[in-house]
């Protein structure tokens, strides 16, 4: 499959603006391999899409799988380099997550692109502002969850990694309560159940029940169903952690 056909079939809004420039450079590093080896679609579902260019005045389209996938690759490259080195466990986490979501062949193609992206100096502000403009809130929360998973892949979220994720969360329009909720899913603390549910410790039973209903709705897998079934697993993990937090407080407080 030619590169031009892949671009037309795999990407929507992400092939424009600062993200498009990053993709273009990364594609340049693998164009010979793609041209000589052929292969299946690198990203997305391979459906013919009209190419969209990025504009601050563009009405937000529905984010498709390919656009989400490219956003993951770019932001993941920033997190992995945050502590000054690329830990193999973090790289393996990215590859394994993509294999789980998309299958081994497509994941291998995506990882080729990832290597081209990770060699570049990326403006996280420009990239995140494009994502904020074009991607819905539920999908941006899903990005945050994935990024913390990468950072935790080597067993520890370093202060440098956490700082990078927090900066990106701000650019992505993720508020502090949502950020702390997702962050708490990757730390062990007696207060984490409250934080996941966006509550202060000592909240009443009624407040806990109300918060659980709110968070279950916010993190329900159906909120990202438009990204395709391949992203349901990550969404279900966030949803399960909300349920676990609620059940922990039920047991602790006896209600």
From TrEMBL:
InterPro entries: DjlA_DnaK_co-chaperone, DjlA_N, DnaJ_domain, J_dom_sf, TerB-like. CDD domains: DnaJ (cd06257), terB_like_DjlA (cd07316). It comes from the Bacteria. This is Molecular chaperone DjiA. SUPFAM superfamilies: Chaperone J-domain. Residues 192-254 form the J domain.
